[in-house]
Amino acid sequence: MKKIALLFFICGMVFRGISQVPQNFDLGGDWEFRKSGTEQWYPAKVPGSVHLDLMRNRMIKDPFFRANEDSVQWVSDTGWEYRRVFYIDKTMLSSHRIDLDFKGLDTYANVYLNDSLILVADNMFREWYLDNIKTRLYLGRNELRIQFPSVTRTNKELYDKLGQKLPGDEKVVCRKAAYQFGWDWGPRLITCGIWKPVFLRLWNQVNIHNVQFIQKSMKDSVASMSAVFTVNSTLTDTVEFTISNDTVPLFSGPALVKRGLNSVRLDFKIRKPKLWWPNGVGLGGPYLYTMKYSVKLGNQIVDKGSQKIGIRTIELVQQRDTVGRSFVILVNNTPVFIKGANYIPQDNFTTRVRDTVYRNLLTDVKNSKMNMLRVWGGGIYENDIFYDLCDELGILVWQDFMFACAMYPSNKEFLQNINAESIQNIVRLRNHPCLALWCGNNEINEGWKNWGWVKQYKYSPEDSAAVYQGYKTIFNGLLATNVRKFDTLRSYIPTSPMFGWGTPESRVAGDMHYWGVWWGKEPFSSYNTVVGRFMSEYGFQSFPEMKSFINFTRPEDLKLGSPVMKAHQKHPVGYELIDEYMKREYRTPKDFASYTYVSQILQAEGIKTAIEAHMRSIPGCMGTMFWQYNDCWPVVSWSARDYFGNYKALHYYLPREFSDVLLSPVIENGRLKVYLVNQRYAIVAGDFRVKLTDFSGKVFYDTTYDAANNFFQKRCWFDMDTASLLQGVDPSKVVFSVSFRTWGYKHDLFTNVFYFRPVKDLDLPRPGIKKEISEVPGGYKIRLTSDKLAKNVWIYTFAKGKFSDNFMDILPGESVEMIFTTSDKVKDLAALLIIRTIADTY
Q: Please, what sign has the CA dihedral across residues 501, 505, 509, 510?
């Protein structure tokens, strides 16, 4: 404790002779913690969580390793206590105001300052800001102590007090990330702690709480803007506000502020604005303005800050049409076909996700040609770095409020709590140009109407009406009102989806969660016929790659049905469903490694079928977002990118499927058709070629002709009776390939392949694949050439790095190229590369 005291004394010294600009005094870093009711204190880190602190002190095993999850369930049944000593000097105490700001407490917390209770918190998603605690501080030594009661016991007490039991059970009373209680892809790890920064805010005259930038109108020549300052003042006086775009002045002028909280609105203009555009649209990039602002009293700056903004319009259009009701995202008055995925927290212990990890993940999203992520309602309102990077990279964000798959209380105390939660998060996120729309909840309306909750909980008609009225109070009332009031530029929908996937309405209106494939055991071909107006959820599971298994298993665990493999599959029949679908399409893999590989291709091919069906339905369908992009721990799940950041086959498929020009072959009514889908806002023209060959390269059909598509248009460029095309050939020994090479200076090439039989029925050869490797800046270029068809070529290595492409088909006599990016000099990379095809799994 002497080291801690000395550190804070030194930090306190920094404040001597400071300016009048508010200063933040960080209270994070080294703390201590203990189990409630015990004497022994142990080192802790803030921000953090109790599980991480227990692991650092070797008091529990890593719950992600093997089957250790069950051994740590006692943690949430226990109360915990944290403390920190800090020192205040005379200069700090001379500040007019000293506020205490907890950016996040998880979840139930009693906060004591110098043994006086100053805060009782009960919401993980809220910031807890205490105005002016100066009178509670001592000159010299101070102690901050926080009690975290048992989450599970507190939840049970609160749930038992409800007049009506609610679907979702005890966790519904708790404003805490729902996925911590376990999901069908995540473990039950109910943690607690100080999960976001905590600091003292020292200020004198003016403290800027937030600045909202509002885009009133936008033209090519000028954007008319407003900045709404929310400031707290210790005086009544005239101050000067300034706003600039980096170094370019935009506004400077006086305004009267009164003692207490003030709202000051200032108007300004940006000439010839550069617009913010989503990734891949092709009409511009995600341009950001750095808005700097300050408040002056006399000639002295008393507070200042900066915020990056983007100039753009965004709108969700839901209009009645001849089919039903549209669901279209307009950016800058331009319809954008949404290509994306559902996103969950990157870790069950979110504080160990570093900024570099956020950047790596979101850069992968951009490089996959996605333009939207949905922040799912059972996780967290993400950290600021997430939205900052989405702004920078052009990734739109569909933002759920944190409610999922349950019914919630609607008593006065709960409504007040979520009212504060929603306002805080709307205000925090509304300046981000990436933010596309707000959604009240995930699947609750569908759950109420289709999942049998009324029967399960034995509701009377009166009970049922009361529970559903509570739902409408929250999602049709409170949240809708707060979005209208605090973020006038965004659309709000109360729930996703509006209709269950088994209903006819789901195909003609709103967004659709389609789980006929997987839950309904329907074939992948159902994706071709079940297409809604906006596909916001669908998916299929696969295993992570062998490289990832090394991180959380032992060799003896790597077999289907082992206790460890069961622990890392959270869907009750997940393995059975993977196996059932695999048997429909593939031969039984010969070993565990082959099984994991084939499972990834199974997933990728299924999602490929869905994405292409959605794109072929443009403009009736205007979005496709698969479930799910990432994982929160090592697991067999629906993800495209596993917990360790390793790509599954699906991830490598995404840049091809999300290309702005797509070739999509499909059999419709016995005819093989090839659609060219153009999402570019320009005409594409080029050479369109179709070809039918056997697996050794013998050509049966080959034709090329000119083709052109207008912008945002789909068109069928090949249409032939399948029986006629296959006359005289064995359908188990041929591949149909299609290519489109655009005219112009770039000569872009787009390709796709089609097989007439399931892979298990193909007479696949054992190809001879040659490797050519050359060094390039940042890594190595690899060229693979095959004498025969090589199906789903997987090239991998245990050397550190990433491949630019993988899991592709190499046609007989043809070549593919990829880049292996690495910061290491790899000796004899050719010898370290391992190549596998489907034919190797038998």
A: negative
Distance CA 685, CA 742 (A): 5
Could you tell me the domains of the chain?
2-201 (2.60.120.260), 205-309 (2.60.40.10), 324-658 (3.20.20.80), 764-842 (2.60.40.10)
The candidate with the shortest Cα–Cα distance to 334, out of 641, 41, 14, 682, is 682
Closest CA to 610 of 664, 573, 558: 664
- Separation of alpha carbons 448 and 469, rounded Å: 12
Which of 128, 131, 304, 135 has its CA nearest to residue 206? Answer: 304
Residues 301, 305, 311, 317, Cα dihedral to 10°: -130
Residues in the chain, pLDDT under 70: 1-19
> Across-strand partners of 685?
708
Identify the residue whose tokens are 């067999």: 636
What dihedral do alpha carbons 267, 271, 276, 280 form, nearest 10°?
Answer: 170
The length of the chain, given as a count of residues: 842
Look-up of token digits 């040659």: 770
Angle between helices 649-657 and 592-616 (to 10 degrees): 20
Strand partners, 706: 687
| Residue indicated by tokens 């009293």 | 297
Looking at residue 684, what is its pLDDT? Answer: 94
Beta bridge partners of 435: 397
Cα 424 from Cα 524, distance rounded (Å): 42
How many whole angstroms separate alpha carbon 111 and alpha carbon 103?
A: 14
Q: Give the pLDDT confidence score for residue 214 in this predicted structure.
A: 97
Query: Which pTM was predicted?
Result: 0.95
User: Locate tokens 């996103």: which residue?
Assistant: 343
Widest CA span in the chain: 94
State pLDDT tens for residues 666-709: 999 999 999 999 999 999 999 999 999 999 999 999 999 999 99
